[in-house]
Amino acid sequence: MQNRNLVSISDLTKDEILALLKRAKEFEKNPNQHILDGKVVGSLFFEPSTRTRLSFETAVNRLGGRVIGFSDARTSSQSKGETLKDTIMMVANYADLIVMRHPLEGAARYASEISKVPVVNAGDGSNQHPSQTMLDLYTIYQTQGTLENLTITMVGDLKYGRTVHSLLEAMHFFNPKFIFVACDELKMPEQYKEYCKELGIEYEETREFNEEIINKTDILYMTRVQRERFSDLMEYERVKNIYTLTASMLKGCKPNLRVLHPLPRVTEIAQDVDNTPQAYYFEQALNGLYTREAIICRALGL
Amino acid sequence: MTIETKKELAVAALQNGIVIDHIPCNSLFKVVNILGIQNMENGVFIGNNLSSRSMGRKGLIKIADINLPKETLNRIAVVAPNAVINIIKDYAVVDKHKVELPEDLVDIIKCNNPKCISNNEPMATHFHVIDEEANHFKCRYCERIVAREEVVLK
Ligand SMILES: [Zn+2]
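YS: structure for the whole thing
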Protein backbone atom coordinates (compact mmCIF):
# COMPACT_ATOMS: atom_id res chain seq x y z
CA MET A 1 0.00 0.00 0.00
CA GLN A 2 1.37 3.42 -0.89
CA ASN A 3 1.53 6.44 1.39
CA ARG A 4 -1.97 7.05 2.73
CA ASN A 5 -1.23 10.03 4.93
CA LEU A 6 -2.82 13.33 4.00
CA VAL A 7 -0.58 16.13 5.24
CA SER A 8 -0.58 18.67 2.42
CA ILE A 9 -2.87 19.14 -0.56
CA SER A 10 0.21 19.09 -2.81
CA ASP A 11 0.77 15.43 -1.80
CA LEU A 12 -2.21 14.51 -4.01
CA THR A 13 -2.11 13.90 -7.75
CA LYS A 14 -4.95 15.04 -10.00
CA ASP A 15 -6.27 11.47 -10.14
CA GLU A 16 -6.17 11.14 -6.36
CA ILE A 17 -8.12 14.40 -6.00
CA LEU A 18 -10.74 13.20 -8.47
CA ALA A 19 -10.99 9.81 -6.74
CA LEU A 20 -11.58 11.54 -3.40
CA LEU A 21 -14.29 13.74 -4.92
CA LYS A 22 -16.00 10.68 -6.40
CA ARG A 23 -15.93 8.95 -3.04
CA ALA A 24 -17.30 12.04 -1.31
CA LYS A 25 -20.21 12.02 -3.74
CA GLU A 26 -21.11 8.49 -2.59
CA PHE A 27 -21.11 9.71 0.99
CA GLU A 28 -23.31 12.63 0.06
CA LYS A 29 -25.89 10.14 -1.18
CA ASN A 30 -25.49 7.94 1.86
CA PRO A 31 -23.46 9.40 4.74
CA ASN A 32 -24.12 6.47 7.09
CA GLN A 33 -22.11 3.40 6.19
CA HIS A 34 -20.57 0.69 8.32
CA ILE A 35 -17.11 1.00 6.83
CA LEU A 36 -15.22 1.68 10.06
CA ASP A 37 -16.81 -1.01 12.23
CA GLY A 38 -14.28 -2.00 14.88
CA LYS A 39 -11.89 0.85 13.99
CA VAL A 40 -10.60 3.42 16.45
CA VAL A 41 -9.60 6.91 15.30
CA GLY A 42 -7.34 9.10 17.43
CA SER A 43 -8.57 12.70 17.28
CA LEU A 44 -5.70 14.81 18.61
CA PHE A 45 -6.49 18.51 18.86
CA PHE A 46 -3.40 20.15 20.35
CA GLU A 47 -5.24 23.43 19.87
CA PRO A 48 -9.00 23.84 19.97
CA SER A 49 -10.95 24.00 16.71
CA THR A 50 -14.51 23.00 17.41
CA ARG A 51 -15.74 23.28 13.83
CA THR A 52 -13.07 21.03 12.31
CA ARG A 53 -13.09 18.55 15.20
CA LEU A 54 -16.86 18.08 15.12
CA SER A 55 -16.77 17.57 11.37
CA PHE A 56 -14.06 14.87 11.58
CA GLU A 57 -15.59 13.16 14.59
CA THR A 58 -19.04 13.14 12.99
CA ALA A 59 -17.48 11.58 9.88
CA VAL A 60 -15.96 8.77 12.01
CA ASN A 61 -19.22 8.21 13.86
CA ARG A 62 -21.32 8.10 10.70
CA LEU A 63 -18.96 5.45 9.33
CA GLY A 64 -19.42 3.33 12.45
CA GLY A 65 -15.96 3.94 13.97
CA ARG A 66 -15.03 5.11 17.44
CA VAL A 67 -13.09 8.17 18.50
CA ILE A 68 -10.46 8.58 21.23
CA GLY A 69 -8.42 11.70 21.88
CA PHE A 70 -8.52 15.20 23.28
CA SER A 71 -9.84 18.55 22.15
CA ASP A 72 -7.37 20.88 23.84
CA ALA A 73 -3.69 20.40 24.68
CA ARG A 74 -4.26 21.85 28.16
CA THR A 75 -6.06 18.67 29.12
CA SER A 76 -3.48 16.39 27.52
CA SER A 77 -0.02 15.19 28.43
CA GLN A 78 1.45 17.95 26.23
CA SER A 79 0.88 20.32 29.10
CA LYS A 80 3.28 18.17 31.13
CA GLY A 81 5.98 18.81 28.54
CA GLU A 82 5.70 15.55 26.65
CA THR A 83 7.16 15.69 23.14
CA LEU A 84 4.89 15.38 20.11
CA LYS A 85 6.80 12.21 19.24
CA ASP A 86 5.93 10.51 22.52
CA THR A 87 2.24 11.42 22.22
CA ILE A 88 2.08 10.12 18.64
CA MET A 89 3.92 6.88 19.53
CA MET A 90 1.47 6.26 22.36
CA VAL A 91 -1.70 6.99 20.37
CA ALA A 92 -0.44 4.98 17.37
CA ASN A 93 -0.47 1.96 19.70
CA TYR A 94 -4.18 2.40 20.35
CA ALA A 95 -5.67 3.88 17.17
CA ASP A 96 -5.92 2.78 13.53
CA LEU A 97 -5.68 6.35 12.25
CA ILE A 98 -4.63 9.70 13.68
CA VAL A 99 -6.42 12.95 12.83
CA MET A 100 -4.46 15.86 14.29
CA ARG A 101 -4.53 19.61 14.64
CA HIS A 102 -1.44 21.35 16.00
CA PRO A 103 -0.41 24.99 16.45
CA LEU A 104 3.12 24.35 15.10
CA GLU A 105 3.79 24.23 11.38
CA GLY A 106 5.01 20.89 10.06
CA ALA A 107 3.73 18.97 13.09
CA ALA A 108 1.57 16.67 10.95
CA ARG A 109 4.40 15.92 8.51
CA TYR A 110 6.66 14.98 11.40
CA ALA A 111 3.93 12.88 13.02
CA SER A 112 3.38 11.04 9.72
CA GLU A 113 7.07 10.11 9.67
CA ILE A 114 7.10 8.57 13.12
CA SER A 115 3.59 7.12 13.32
CA LYS A 116 2.99 3.49 12.37
CA VAL A 117 -0.63 4.36 11.52
CA PRO A 118 -1.68 6.91 8.86
CA VAL A 119 -1.95 10.59 9.79
CA VAL A 120 -4.49 13.09 8.48
CA ASN A 121 -3.63 16.76 8.98
CA ALA A 122 -6.54 18.79 10.36
CA GLY A 123 -4.46 21.98 10.32
CA ASP A 124 -0.85 22.74 11.32
CA GLY A 125 -0.46 26.38 12.33
CA SER A 126 -0.79 28.62 9.30
CA ASN A 127 0.68 25.96 7.03
CA GLN A 128 -1.76 23.35 5.65
CA HIS A 129 -5.37 22.30 6.08
CA PRO A 130 -5.97 19.83 3.25
CA SER A 131 -9.46 18.69 4.28
CA GLN A 132 -10.64 22.32 3.96
CA THR A 133 -9.20 22.43 0.46
CA MET A 134 -10.87 19.14 -0.44
CA LEU A 135 -14.23 20.40 0.73
CA ASP A 136 -13.73 23.60 -1.26
CA LEU A 137 -12.95 21.55 -4.38
CA TYR A 138 -15.94 19.33 -3.75
CA THR A 139 -18.21 22.34 -3.41
CA ILE A 140 -16.90 23.89 -6.60
CA TYR A 141 -17.42 20.60 -8.42
CA GLN A 142 -20.90 20.17 -6.94
CA THR A 143 -22.07 23.66 -7.91
CA GLN A 144 -20.41 23.96 -11.33
CA GLY A 145 -20.53 20.34 -12.49
CA THR A 146 -16.82 20.58 -13.33
CA LEU A 147 -13.52 21.86 -11.97
CA GLU A 148 -12.21 22.78 -15.41
CA ASN A 149 -11.90 26.27 -16.95
CA LEU A 150 -13.51 28.23 -14.11
CA THR A 151 -12.95 31.84 -13.11
CA ILE A 152 -12.33 31.97 -9.39
CA THR A 153 -12.32 35.32 -7.65
CA MET A 154 -10.64 35.40 -4.23
CA VAL A 155 -11.49 38.33 -1.98
CA GLY A 156 -10.19 39.64 1.33
CA ASP A 157 -7.11 38.34 3.12
CA LEU A 158 -5.03 36.78 0.38
CA LYS A 159 -1.77 37.23 2.26
CA TYR A 160 -2.25 35.17 5.40
CA GLY A 161 -5.26 33.10 4.32
CA ARG A 162 -3.91 29.58 3.95
CA THR A 163 -7.22 28.35 2.48
CA VAL A 164 -6.81 30.53 -0.63
CA HIS A 165 -3.18 29.45 -1.09
CA SER A 166 -4.02 25.75 -0.89
CA LEU A 167 -7.05 26.18 -3.14
CA LEU A 168 -4.90 27.96 -5.70
CA GLU A 169 -2.37 25.10 -5.63
CA ALA A 170 -5.03 22.41 -5.90
CA MET A 171 -6.84 24.16 -8.77
CA HIS A 172 -3.70 24.29 -10.94
CA PHE A 173 -4.66 20.90 -12.40
CA PHE A 174 -7.89 22.30 -13.84
CA ASN A 175 -6.96 25.26 -16.04
CA PRO A 176 -8.44 27.97 -13.81
CA LYS A 177 -8.42 31.73 -14.15
CA PHE A 178 -7.98 33.72 -10.94
CA ILE A 179 -8.95 37.21 -9.92
CA PHE A 180 -7.24 38.35 -6.71
CA VAL A 181 -9.10 41.14 -4.90
CA ALA A 182 -7.32 42.60 -1.87
CA CYS A 183 -5.91 45.77 -0.38
CA ASP A 184 -2.15 46.32 -0.54
CA GLU A 185 -1.58 45.01 3.00
CA LEU A 186 -3.30 41.71 2.28
CA LYS A 187 -2.49 41.01 -1.35
CA MET A 188 -1.51 37.63 -2.76
CA PRO A 189 2.16 36.91 -1.94
CA GLU A 190 4.70 37.01 -4.80
CA GLN A 191 5.43 33.32 -4.30
CA TYR A 192 1.93 32.34 -5.44
CA LYS A 193 1.82 34.78 -8.33
CA GLU A 194 5.17 33.36 -9.43
CA TYR A 195 3.64 29.88 -9.15
CA CYS A 196 0.81 30.94 -11.50
CA LYS A 197 3.26 32.44 -13.99
CA GLU A 198 5.39 29.29 -14.04
CA LEU A 199 2.36 27.12 -14.74
CA GLY A 200 0.85 29.53 -17.26
CA ILE A 201 -2.21 30.21 -15.09
CA GLU A 202 -3.96 33.44 -16.00
CA TYR A 203 -4.64 35.87 -13.16
CA GLU A 204 -5.52 39.48 -12.56
CA GLU A 205 -4.98 41.47 -9.43
CA THR A 206 -7.07 44.39 -8.27
CA ARG A 207 -7.94 46.54 -5.26
CA GLU A 208 -11.47 47.14 -6.55
CA PHE A 209 -14.30 44.87 -5.49
CA ASN A 210 -17.22 45.67 -7.78
CA GLU A 211 -19.91 44.31 -10.13
CA GLU A 212 -17.58 44.32 -13.09
CA ILE A 213 -15.38 41.74 -11.34
CA ILE A 214 -18.30 39.77 -9.94
CA ASN A 215 -20.07 39.51 -13.31
CA LYS A 216 -17.22 37.53 -14.88
CA THR A 217 -16.85 35.18 -11.91
CA ASP A 218 -17.94 31.55 -11.48
CA ILE A 219 -16.79 31.06 -7.88
CA LEU A 220 -16.61 34.00 -5.50
CA TYR A 221 -14.37 32.88 -2.65
CA MET A 222 -14.69 35.31 0.26
CA THR A 223 -12.27 35.27 3.23
CA ARG A 224 -12.23 36.89 6.63
CA VAL A 225 -10.28 40.11 7.02
CA GLN A 226 -8.91 39.94 10.54
CA ARG A 227 -8.29 43.00 12.62
CA GLU A 228 -5.04 41.55 14.03
CA ARG A 229 -3.45 41.74 10.57
CA PHE A 230 -3.47 45.55 10.56
CA SER A 231 -1.01 47.86 12.21
CA ASP A 232 -3.28 50.79 11.37
CA LEU A 233 -6.82 50.33 12.71
CA MET A 234 -8.21 53.18 10.57
CA GLU A 235 -7.05 51.23 7.56
CA TYR A 236 -8.79 48.11 8.91
CA GLU A 237 -12.11 49.95 9.25
CA ARG A 238 -11.82 51.23 5.68
CA VAL A 239 -10.81 47.90 4.15
CA LYS A 240 -13.40 45.92 6.09
CA ASN A 241 -16.20 47.84 4.36
CA ILE A 242 -14.72 47.80 0.88
CA TYR A 243 -14.48 44.02 0.83
CA THR A 244 -17.98 43.32 2.10
CA LEU A 245 -20.30 41.51 -0.29
CA THR A 246 -23.96 42.65 -0.33
CA ALA A 247 -26.94 41.12 -2.16
CA SER A 248 -27.27 44.09 -4.50
CA MET A 249 -23.76 43.46 -5.87
CA LEU A 250 -24.96 40.07 -7.19
CA LYS A 251 -27.77 41.48 -9.38
CA GLY A 252 -26.00 41.02 -12.72
CA CYS A 253 -23.90 37.94 -11.91
CA LYS A 254 -23.67 34.76 -13.97
CA PRO A 255 -26.47 32.32 -13.04
CA ASN A 256 -23.96 29.65 -12.01
CA LEU A 257 -22.02 31.94 -9.64
CA ARG A 258 -21.79 30.66 -6.07
CA VAL A 259 -20.40 32.44 -3.04
CA LEU A 260 -18.09 30.36 -0.83
CA HIS A 261 -16.48 31.18 2.51
CA PRO A 262 -14.45 28.92 4.83
CA LEU A 263 -16.45 30.25 7.83
CA PRO A 264 -16.74 31.68 10.41
CA ARG A 265 -17.60 34.95 8.70
CA VAL A 266 -17.67 38.30 10.42
CA THR A 267 -18.68 41.23 8.26
CA GLU A 268 -17.38 40.24 4.83
CA ILE A 269 -20.69 38.78 3.69
CA ALA A 270 -23.78 40.85 4.55
CA GLN A 271 -26.73 38.96 6.03
CA ASP A 272 -28.90 39.79 2.99
CA VAL A 273 -26.66 37.60 0.81
CA ASP A 274 -27.83 34.53 2.77
CA ASN A 275 -31.20 34.67 0.99
CA THR A 276 -29.81 34.85 -2.54
CA PRO A 277 -29.52 31.72 -4.71
CA GLN A 278 -25.80 32.43 -4.89
CA ALA A 279 -25.12 31.89 -1.17
CA TYR A 280 -23.54 28.48 -0.73
CA TYR A 281 -21.30 28.71 2.37
CA PHE A 282 -23.55 26.70 4.68
CA GLU A 283 -23.81 23.83 2.17
CA GLN A 284 -20.04 24.15 1.73
CA ALA A 285 -19.55 23.50 5.46
CA LEU A 286 -21.77 20.41 5.26
CA ASN A 287 -19.66 19.10 2.39
CA GLY A 288 -16.83 18.93 4.92
CA LEU A 289 -18.52 15.87 6.37
CA TYR A 290 -18.61 13.96 3.06
CA THR A 291 -15.10 14.86 2.02
CA ARG A 292 -13.73 13.95 5.46
CA GLU A 293 -15.49 10.59 5.26
CA ALA A 294 -13.70 10.07 1.93
CA ILE A 295 -10.35 11.22 3.35
CA ILE A 296 -10.64 8.86 6.33
CA CYS A 297 -11.49 5.88 4.10
CA ARG A 298 -8.57 6.64 1.79
CA ALA A 299 -6.19 6.90 4.73
CA LEU A 300 -7.29 3.50 6.01
CA GLY A 301 -7.23 1.93 2.55
CA LEU A 302 -10.93 1.09 2.86
CA MET B 1 58.51 32.63 1.92
CA THR B 2 55.14 33.66 0.49
CA ILE B 3 51.88 32.40 1.88
CA GLU B 4 51.37 30.47 -1.34
CA THR B 5 54.60 28.46 -1.09
CA LYS B 6 54.01 27.83 2.60
CA LYS B 7 50.63 26.40 1.73
CA GLU B 8 52.08 24.23 -1.03
CA LEU B 9 54.63 22.87 1.41
CA ALA B 10 51.99 22.18 4.00
CA VAL B 11 49.83 20.31 1.50
CA ALA B 12 52.80 18.30 0.40
CA ALA B 13 53.54 17.49 4.01
CA LEU B 14 50.30 15.57 4.38
CA GLN B 15 51.06 11.89 3.89
CA ASN B 16 47.50 10.55 3.94
CA GLY B 17 44.16 12.28 4.39
CA ILE B 18 42.07 14.95 2.75
CA VAL B 19 42.51 18.57 1.82
CA ILE B 20 39.43 20.76 1.50
CA ASP B 21 40.33 23.69 -0.70
CA HIS B 22 38.55 26.81 -2.03
CA ILE B 23 36.43 27.45 1.03
CA PRO B 24 35.04 31.03 1.20
CA CYS B 25 36.79 32.75 4.15
CA ASN B 26 33.55 33.55 5.95
CA SER B 27 32.47 29.91 5.70
CA LEU B 28 35.64 28.31 7.05
CA PHE B 29 34.45 27.80 10.59
CA LYS B 30 31.01 26.76 9.40
CA VAL B 31 32.70 23.97 7.45
CA VAL B 32 34.60 23.04 10.62
CA ASN B 33 31.25 22.83 12.40
CA ILE B 34 29.42 20.84 9.74
CA LEU B 35 32.13 18.19 9.66
CA GLY B 36 32.59 18.22 13.44
CA ILE B 37 36.31 18.82 13.02
CA GLN B 38 36.54 20.35 16.50
CA ASN B 39 35.87 16.91 17.96
CA MET B 40 38.32 14.98 15.82
CA GLU B 41 41.51 13.50 17.20
CA ASN B 42 43.25 13.43 13.82
CA GLY B 43 45.95 15.91 12.90
CA VAL B 44 44.16 18.99 11.53
CA PHE B 45 45.56 22.09 9.78
CA ILE B 46 43.29 25.03 9.23
CA GLY B 47 44.25 28.03 7.10
CA ASN B 48 42.25 31.12 6.33
CA ASN B 49 42.67 34.29 4.26
CA LEU B 50 45.17 32.48 2.05
CA SER B 51 45.59 34.10 -1.34
CA SER B 52 43.89 32.38 -4.21
CA ARG B 53 44.05 33.04 -7.91
CA SER B 54 40.36 32.29 -8.48
CA MET B 55 38.83 33.61 -5.25
CA GLY B 56 41.15 36.35 -4.05
CA ARG B 57 41.25 34.87 -0.56
CA LYS B 58 40.22 31.46 0.61
CA GLY B 59 40.14 29.02 3.45
CA LEU B 60 41.69 25.56 3.49
CA ILE B 61 41.45 22.57 5.81
CA LYS B 62 43.66 19.49 5.94
CA ILE B 63 42.79 16.43 7.96
CA ALA B 64 45.36 13.67 8.33
CA ASP B 65 44.65 9.96 8.21
CA ILE B 66 40.97 10.19 7.49
CA ASN B 67 38.58 8.89 4.90
CA LEU B 68 35.23 10.67 4.92
CA PRO B 69 32.33 9.42 2.78
CA LYS B 70 31.32 11.62 -0.15
CA GLU B 71 27.87 12.26 1.37
CA THR B 72 29.49 13.66 4.50
CA LEU B 73 31.79 15.96 2.55
CA ASN B 74 28.95 17.11 0.28
CA ARG B 75 27.17 18.55 3.31
CA ILE B 76 29.60 21.49 3.32
CA ALA B 77 28.32 22.59 -0.11
CA VAL B 78 25.59 24.53 1.69
CA VAL B 79 28.17 27.10 2.80
CA ALA B 80 31.04 26.31 0.43
CA PRO B 81 29.50 25.42 -2.94
CA ASN B 82 32.80 25.59 -4.82
CA ALA B 83 34.96 23.72 -2.32
CA VAL B 84 37.32 21.13 -3.81
CA ILE B 85 38.20 17.88 -2.08
CA ASN B 86 41.68 16.43 -2.58
CA ILE B 87 42.27 12.87 -1.42
CA ILE B 88 45.92 12.35 -0.50
CA LYS B 89 47.67 8.99 -0.43
CA ASP B 90 51.44 8.70 0.10
CA TYR B 91 51.89 12.44 -0.47
CA ALA B 92 50.10 12.31 -3.84
CA VAL B 93 46.67 13.61 -4.85
CA VAL B 94 44.81 10.47 -5.92
CA ASP B 95 41.39 12.05 -6.34
CA LYS B 96 40.20 15.63 -6.74
CA HIS B 97 36.57 16.71 -7.05
CA LYS B 98 34.22 19.57 -6.33
CA VAL B 99 31.62 19.10 -3.62
CA GLU B 100 28.05 18.59 -4.80
CA LEU B 101 25.08 19.85 -2.88
CA PRO B 102 22.76 16.94 -2.06
CA GLU B 103 19.07 17.29 -3.03
CA ASP B 104 18.10 16.87 0.59
CA LEU B 105 19.82 18.59 3.49
CA VAL B 106 19.29 16.45 6.55
CA ASP B 107 20.08 18.05 9.88
CA ILE B 108 22.52 20.58 8.40
CA ILE B 109 20.65 23.89 8.59
CA LYS B 110 18.04 25.31 10.92
CA CYS B 111 14.58 26.42 9.89
CA ASN B 112 14.16 30.17 10.34
CA ASN B 113 10.47 29.86 11.19
CA PRO B 114 10.13 29.92 14.99
CA LYS B 115 6.73 28.23 14.68
CA CYS B 116 8.21 25.29 12.79
CA ILE B 117 7.96 21.93 14.55
CA SER B 118 11.67 21.36 13.87
CA ASN B 119 12.50 24.26 16.20
CA ASN B 120 10.28 22.89 18.96
CA GLU B 121 10.98 19.13 19.04
CA PRO B 122 14.24 17.22 19.50
CA MET B 123 14.41 16.13 15.84
CA ALA B 124 16.50 16.39 12.67
CA THR B 125 15.76 19.22 10.24
CA HIS B 126 15.16 18.38 6.60
CA PHE B 127 15.28 20.72 3.61
CA HIS B 128 14.81 20.12 -0.12
CA VAL B 129 16.88 22.12 -2.59
CA ILE B 130 14.24 23.65 -4.85
CA ASP B 131 16.16 25.46 -7.58
CA GLU B 132 18.75 24.65 -10.18
CA GLU B 133 21.28 27.12 -8.69
CA ALA B 134 20.68 25.67 -5.20
CA ASN B 135 20.02 29.08 -3.69
CA HIS B 136 16.71 28.18 -2.05
CA PHE B 137 15.84 25.43 0.38
CA LYS B 138 12.32 24.38 1.38
CA CYS B 139 11.65 23.04 4.86
CA ARG B 140 10.10 19.59 4.64
CA TYR B 141 8.01 20.38 7.70
CA CYS B 142 6.65 23.94 7.67
CA GLU B 143 7.22 24.31 3.89
CA ARG B 144 8.88 27.71 4.41
CA ILE B 145 11.59 28.65 1.90
CA VAL B 146 15.04 29.69 3.18
CA ALA B 147 17.48 31.50 0.89
CA ARG B 148 21.16 30.60 0.97
CA GLU B 149 22.11 33.99 2.46
CA GLU B 150 19.77 33.39 5.40
CA VAL B 151 21.09 29.93 6.24
CA VAL B 152 21.78 29.26 9.90
CA LEU B 153 23.62 26.04 10.69
CA LYS B 154 22.18 23.58 13.12
ZN1 LIG C 1 10.42 24.64 8.98
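YS: worth flagging: Residues 281-299 of chain A form the longest helix (19 residues).
IM: good catch. Also Chain A has a mean pLDDT of 94.
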